[in-house]
Design a protein that fits this description.
The mean pLDDT of chain A is 95. With 115 residues, chain A is an all-beta fold. Chain A is globular and about 40 Å long. Helices cover 0% and strands 50% of the residues of chain A. With 111 residues, chain B is an all-beta fold. In chain B, the strands form 2 sheets. In chain B, strands 2, 4, 5, 9, 10 and 11 form a 6-stranded mixed beta sheet that branches. In chain B, a hairpin with a 2-residue loop joins strand 6 and strand 7. Chain B starts with a strand and ends with a strand. Classes of the chains: A mainly beta (115), B mainly beta (111). At the A-B interface, strand 4, strand 5 and strand 9 of A face strand 5, strand 9 and strand 10 of B.
Chain lengths: 115, 111
Amino acid sequence: DAGVTQSPTHLIKTRGQQVTLRCSPKSGHDTVSWYQQALGQGPQFIFQYYEEEERQRGNFPDRFSGHQFPNYSSELNVNALLLGDSALYLCASSLYNRLSGNTIYFGEGSWLTVV
Amino acid sequence: GQNIDQPTEMTATEGAIVQINCTYQTSGFNGLFWYQQHAGEAPTFLSYNVLDGLEEKGRFSSFLSRSKGYSYLLLKELQMKDSASYLCAVRGNNQGGKLIFGQGTELSVKP
């Protein structure tokens, strides 16, 4: 049973560029959430996708966008990269209608460095 | 607003017991999670509380008081490998299971 997989694991981009990060949820899960974790901080919620629609969004600018595909996998896109976008980007998968128990699983994350 | 507070740093001695506190104010509540995160790695799940009381799992225990908006993580028989950041997170009652995290407590275990 595959867990949550993310790619790429590490990448370096230049200011102004665009980046796409990918996530495949745990088998049987239908919801993907994205978090940004800056160095020394806790993860911050970016947005969440269910049934190919953005369902909730945190306090992030429109430069951050996403997509969910029919197979439940998801992409996070960041445009016009800033130095401050350097962070660990975490993907979490869950079941949209199940709020009991430990049903949230994190991937290993994608380390983005903007230079 | 929604807020989760935990100490920034703690230091403890190998073999000792340490308690990491977390207080929260959120618009909804559907469970509190504790995660361990070693430097450069993703968070790993430690414990989950949704009802008041103590949950024990080996050397780790977690306590929750919903009326006080308070939780703690108790680590016993500390080992050097327990040096890590410990994250407290609350799940709201919206569908989808969004987590709100504290900033993390950096625990240093010294010999």
